[in-house]
Specification:
Blueprint (H helix, E strand, L loop, with lengths): L1 H25 L16 E4 L3 E8 L5 E8 L9 E6 L4 E6 L4 E6 L5 E6 L4 E5 L8 E2 L3 E7 L6 E6 L5 E6 L5 E5 L7 E4 L8 E6 L3 E6 L2 E7 L4 E6 L7 E5 L5 E5 L5 E6 L4 E6 L6 E6 L3 E7 L5 E8 L8 E4 L4 E8 L2 E7 L5 E6 L4 E6 L5 E6 L3 E6 L13
Length: 396
């Protein structure tokens, strides 16, 4: 009887073992983090009785800017912008007198852009030596800045209260105007470094439009609210758009607007980042029960994934850098927050514990220089590349 039962069970056990093996091969999990080295910061700066926000970084990781609000009511007469270099030197700080809505730097850090809450948009040309900005002659609702050239595309309030889409140079000169702007708000990006006149805009209802100057080249309705956009910025023609929800997905397009692939990712939120030349894209899905980081090929295939517990992190950013050789995001485990990096095969490269918690973070184009704003008002800098480098196509 026992021999008969064993002879019946053995093929079944072998069958299930083969299934488990196949799953491990076809759907590899990212390696455990407990064997990865722990990074030590290069420097830290503490800002007492202040709040830091709107962190900006040059694409080559050489310069950073942050807005500072003094928590003391007696001293809070507007905000201060502080510029810091990669060696921790404070280059300049100056009072704005108003609240900052957004900061941006061009690729080499020459131009600093300050978008204020009242719609004023300042451009600081050679801001390390000059304090008086150029100001756009319009009120801005939303704006994006090219990391290569400093080209600005903004939703502008017209005199009659309507909105128009306008482009400005780094010298505050208007280059073109397009009258139709999505009424429900939009997100945008400059998808390709070599086509700096090309801008990709997406409405919150899911319509994606690619512009060249003021001319719409093509438009696609994805049928759902978009949560993130990304592209192969340095080379290639990959565009990726993420939609959250029960039917959440990442869709891949070429520069002609043709959908080339799709990966279904049901989730409450999705953050997306594609590597410089479109080698792969990293998608961070966020749900009440967990977070999952997925590494996707341009064909929509899941190459590996890593799962973390549900977290109360202030940031959901993810970065695929250096031609997909490194993927970075924030994780929280046992109440401790850190940045974590993986390689293209899902192996954990390092962990960077962040004392005080993570509020914002930025990285250089190659993921080797990382600046963090902590929840307790510190700037923390990690440098994995001591030698000075410049980003391709982004200045020095």
């Amino acid at each position: 009887m026992n021999r008969t039962l064993l002879s019946l069970l053995t093929p079944l056990l072998l069958f299930f073992a083969l299934i488990l093996f196949a799953l491990q091969v076809l759907l590899p999990q990212a390696s455990a983090e407990n064997t990865a080295p722990e990074l030590t910061w290069a420097w830290r700066k503490n800002f007492k009785n202040a709040e830091l926000h709107n962190l900006a970084a040059a694409w080559n990781g050489s310069l950073f800017a942050v807005a500072v609000t003094d928590r003391s009511p007696a001293k809070n007469k507007g905000e201060v912008i502080i510029g810091v270099d990669a060696d921790s030197k404070v280059i300049k700080d100056w009072k704005i007198g108003k609240k900052v809505r957004n900061l941006a730097l061009d690729g080499g850090g020459t131009l600093l852009f300050a978008e204020l809450e009242d719609g004023t948009f300042h451009i600081y040309d050679h801001w390390k030596t000059k304090t008086q900005p150029m100001t756009l002659p319009v009120k801005v609702r939303e704006a994006i800045v090219s990391p290569k050239s400093g080209l600005i595309v903004a939703s502008v309030v017209n005199n009659d209260g309507t909105s128009s889409l306008r482009a400005f140079s780094g010298k505050a000169k208007q280059l073109w105007k397009y009258e139709s702007v999505p009424a429900d708000g939009w997100m945008g990006m400059f998808p390709f470094a070599e086509k700096d006149k090309t801008v990709l805009l997406a409405s919150k209802t899911g319509k994606i439009t690619l512009f060249e100057d003021a001319k719409p080249l093509w438009s696609i309705d994805t049928g759902g609210g978009l949560s993130s956009l990304s592209s192969s910025f340095l080379q290639g023609s990959l565009i990726a758009a993420a939609s959250a929800g029960d039917k959440g997905s990442v869709r891949f397009f070429d520069d002609k607007g043709t959908q080339t692939a799709m990966s279904g990712l049901p989730s409450e939120r999705i953050s997306l980042s594609c590597a410089d030349a479109g080698e792969a894209c990293a998608a961070l899905t966020i749900n009440k029960t967990d977070r999952e980081l997925r590494f996707l090929s341009p064909q929509g295939k899941e190459l590996w994934k890593a799962r973390f517990p549900a977290a109360t992190l202030a940031t959901s950013a993810v970065v695929a850098a250096d031609h997909a050789r490194i993927v970075i995001t924030a994780v929280e485990q046992q109440g401790k927050e850190s940045l974590r990096a993986w390689d293209a095969k899902g192996k954990v490269l390092w962990n960077a514990p962040i004392e005080g918690g993570i509020k914002e973070w930025k990285t250089s184009w190659n993921g080797k220089k990382i600046i963090v704003v902590t929840k307790d008002s510190r700037l923390v800098f990690f440098n994995l590349e001591p030698r000075k480098t410049s980003a391709p196509g982004a200045g020095k």
